[in-house]
Write a structure and sequence with these properties.
Chain B: InterPro entries: AAA+_ATPase, ABC_transporter-like_ATP-bd, ABC_transporter-like_CS, Oligopep_ABC_C, P-loop_NTPase, PhnK. The structure holds 3 protein chains of 3 kinds. By secondary structure, chain A is α/β, with parallel strands linked by helices. Helix content of chain A is 34%, strand content 27%. In chain A, helix 3 packs across helix 4 and helix 3 runs parallel beside helix 5. Chain B is built from 10 helices and 10 strands. The longest helix of chain B has 18 residues. Classes of the chains: A alpha/beta, B alpha/beta, C alpha/beta.
Chain lengths: 233, 256, 277
């Protein structure tokens, strides 16, 4: 088993200060430590409100941590995303750190195939290869080919979610953050996602995710990471 | 990666009133940066000052030109400033009527910058103009029509073609989709997104629309009262705004 | 009633001569000058008249043409004006003249080094129709930024299939200044190039003077694939038989009968005895 350390969170805290709600302060994460190794799939567990999504967003640098470090291995060196410049964060996201949310952010007028291919293009692939890979993934995720040239704005929730997964997984990145990507998928498609994750892990990626469905969790997790809601301070 | 544009402590005043104050940022090649803020926040003043259309009260702007040389924009003479505007920069105005030459045909509008660069082959100019009209989704058969007969969205797309035809390295855009219908906006945003990617353009875009920033820009600057109150990754700013003003701005948006 | 020689007072003529010297020193550059009220309205050649007044000496021989003709109202008026206020000799013969004031033509007869051609100019700024702001056109001249002029030629070809501008056809003087040749037909543009005679241009209403000194490069703008061309006629002059001069089409009776004749009356007249002989 590959045990290369790939992501390390130390003493991570996150609180939100709401200036327009009488300066209310929401403490969501406090003093959190987590280590993630290549090939692992760690599933965050805990009731809703425990800060699972917040944690993924902090790691992705979508939220700024209030305290602590988010060290990850990028291009063979360690970088603290909590202190990285925006350009460094973008570079890390482009090649090292992937994030699949529950919802697809639809871009008006852009066909499904191009939405999926885009991250690969941005990582430097040529158009033909990127479209081919995108088609392959959509095919595996049972998105019918007649939909590929349409913008996914009008697709069903399940179809959009599968498009989103394809987009999130098309670039083989060492770290994958998944926020309930299978919530509205049927069993067949969940199985496909599980296989895709297994393949990614086999290729050396580490997965950190939220899966509410217990079957799915058992199917993909190598380890659980329990989380609890903090008392409101 | 080395920056393309470095803005340092840039200020511009209108008498006693602050236009923009002490603004600094870098822009990298191929990057689209949005400046957001409400009316009067100084975002257009900042854009025009960076683009050397207004002269700063203090601070400086440095630009790395095609040959790698750094230019201090404030110290350029008019001739060099215009050469830069003609050969390496582009400017897209909010109202396409300000950026177009309304009394000449669409084709001449697109070809003008090429002619300014010395291209003297009519057939070639026509060919390039036609292909750019197509790129911005204007029927090339309308190449000889005056833009006065075009819809607002078409005029804006024509202005984009006119600006990008010389393949500038840096484009300034001042609310290019404000004042257009939502459906027309989407088309122009998609077009800009595509062209910026295809041409590897660097761009600074002023907008009051956070959804536009989300769609186009990896990085965003938030301005209030002429000052930068927050800057960073666009998704960070929209999803985890820190400054009270940014929180207000984000919470005032219906959907982003 | 007596006038100062050549109507204008000596200080005004000195001001004009200084402006003209500057114009000659910077070929094609529009020099501002203090245009005076003249006893003719703007549009009747006040710019040309002031230049002529500044040039005339008692020994000069003046010829004035309008559209090539010596006998039109404008030409006759100006010729009589100077005969009266300067007492100079006048002529209708190009070869006899030392100063030729002209509206809309350059004589067909080749000019010499000892002759000066004075043009009446309604609009000295060739960029004006495309750029109304004077400050901007002056900046464009300062920077030799002339892409705009090609926009106009482009529009011509786009609309008519060829460069349809047939008079006041823009030229680049001495490789530097974009210049209006005044509303002469483009047929006359080649005569501007390397002309032995000094050419002076005066715009009274716009208060600008400019010059093309003798033997100066004058290039008519064009596109590589649409080169500059002058007008050609299928006809010859019906009076003198000339096949190489600029022809006017004139209606000669109430039934619409047309004929083509030289616009340069002196040239035509000189040739007719030869044609008869």
């Amino acid at each position: 088993m590959n045990t290369t350390l790939i992501l390390e969170l130390r003493d991570l805290s996150k609180s939100f200060e709401l200036h327009h709600q009488h300066g209310a302060r929401l403490n969501v994460l406090r003093g959190l430590n987590l280590r993630l190794h290549a090939g692992e799939c760690v599933v965050l567990s805990g009731a809703s409100g425990a800060g699972k999504s917040t944690l993924l967003r902090v790691i992705y640098a979508n939220y700024r941590p209030s305290y602590g470090t988010v060290h990850l291995r990028h291009d063979g060196r360690w970088i603290d995303l909590a202190k990285a410049s925006p350009h460094e964060v973008l570079e890390v996201r482009r090649r090292t750190l992937g994030y699949v949310s529950q919802f697809l952010r639809v871009i008006p007028r852009v066909p499904t195939l191009d939405i999926v291919a885009e991250p690969l293009l941005q990582a430097g692939a040529d158009v033909h290869d990127a479209r081919q890979r995108a088609g392959g993934l959509l095919h595996r995720l049972n998105v019918p080919e007649r939909l590929w040239q349409l913008p996914p704005g009008t697709f069903s929730g399940g179809e959009q979610q599968r498009v989103n997964i394809a987009r999130g997984l098309i670039v083989p990145r060492p770290i994958l953050l998944l926020d309930e990507p299978t919530a509205s998928l049927d069993i067949g498609n969940r199985e496909v996602v599980a296989q895709l994750l297994a393949e990614a892990r086999a290729a050396g990626s580490a997965v950190l995710g939220i899966f509410h469905d217990e079957d799915m969790r058992d199917r993909v997790a190598t380890r659980l990471f329990p989380m609890q809601a903090l008392e409101a301070a | 990666m080395s920056a393309l544009l470095k803005v340092r402590n840039l200020s511009r005043h209108y008498g006693q009133r602050i236009g923009c104050e002490e603004v600094s940022f870098d822009l990298h090649p191929g990057e689209l940066l949005c400046i957001v803020g409400e009316s009067g926040s100084g975002k257009s003043t900042l854009l025009n000052t960076v683009a050397a259309q207004l002269s700063p009260a203090a601070g400086n702007v440095h630009y790395r030109q095609r040959d790698g040389e750094w230019l201090d924009i404030g110290s350029l003479n008019e001739a060099d400033r215009r050469r830069l505007a003609r050969e390496e920069w582009g400017f897209v105005t909010q109202n396409p009527r300000d950026g177009l030459r309304l009394n000449v045909s669409a084709g001449a509008n697109v070809a003008e910058r090429l002619m300014a660069l010395g291209m003297r082959d009519y057939g070639q100019l026509r060919g390039i103009a036609r292909s750019w009209l197509e790129r911005v989704e204007i029927d090339p058969a309308r190449i000889d029509d005056a833009p006065t007969g075009f819809s607002g969205g078409m005029q804006q797309r024509l202005q984009i073609a006119r600006t990008l035809v010389t393949q500038p390295r840096l484009v300034f855009m001042d609310e290019p989709t404000a004042g257009l219908d939502v459906s027309v906006q989407a088309r122009i945003l998609d077009l800009l997104r595509r062209l910026v990617n295809e041409l590897g353009l660097a761009a600074v875009m002023v907008t009051h629309d956070l959804a536009v920033a989300r769609l186009l820009a990896a990085r965003t600057i938030v301005m209030q009262g002429g000052r930068v109150v927050e800057t960073g990754l666009t998704d960070q700013i929209l999803d985890d705004p820190q400054h009270p003003y940014t929180q207000l701005l984000v919470s005032s948006v219906l959907t982003t | 009633m007596t006038y100062n020689f050549a109507f204008l007072d000596e200080d005004t003529k000195r001001m004009l001569r200084r402006a003209l010297l500057k114009a000659v020193a910077i070929p094609g550059y529009q020099v501002p000058f203090g245009s005076r009220e003249m006893p003719l309205p703007y549009g009747w050649g006040t710019g040309g008249i002031q230049v002529t007044a500044a040039l005339l000496g008692p020994d000069d021989v003046l010829k004035v043409i309008d559209q090539g003709a010596d006998d039109t109202t404008n030409a006759v008026n100006i010729r009589r004006f100077f005969a009266r206020v300067a007492g100079v000799a006048t002529t209708e013969h190009t070869v006899d003249a030392t100063i030729i004031q002209t509206r809309h033509r350059i004589p067909e007869t080749s000019l010499r080094e000892d002759q000066v051609l004075v043009f009446q100019v309604p609009e000295p700024e060739p960029l004006r129709t495309l750029e109304p702001r004077e400050a901007e056109t002056r900046t464009l001249h300062a920077l030799a930024d002339y892409g705009l002029m090609h926009v106009k030629l482009y529009e011509d070809i786009a609309q008519y299939g060829h460069i349809a501008t047939s008079y006041d056809y823009p030229v680049l003087v001495d490789g530097r200044y974009l210049t209006s040749p005044s509303p002469i037909p483009k047929f006359d543009n080649p005569k501007l190039h390397q002309s032995p005679a000094l050419m002076l241009f005066g715009a009274g209403r716009e208060k600008r003077l400019y010059a093309i000194p003798p033997y100066t490069e004058v290039e008519s703008l064009a596109f590589d694939d649409h080169p500059f061309e002058i007008q050609r006629w299928e006809h010859q002059c019906e009076l003198c038989g000339s096949g190489e001069s600029y022809l006017d089409e004139v209606i000669v009776d109430d039934r619409g009968t047309r004929m083509f004749v030289c616009s340069d009356t002196d040239f035509c007249g000189q040739r007719r005895p030869e044609a008869r002989a």
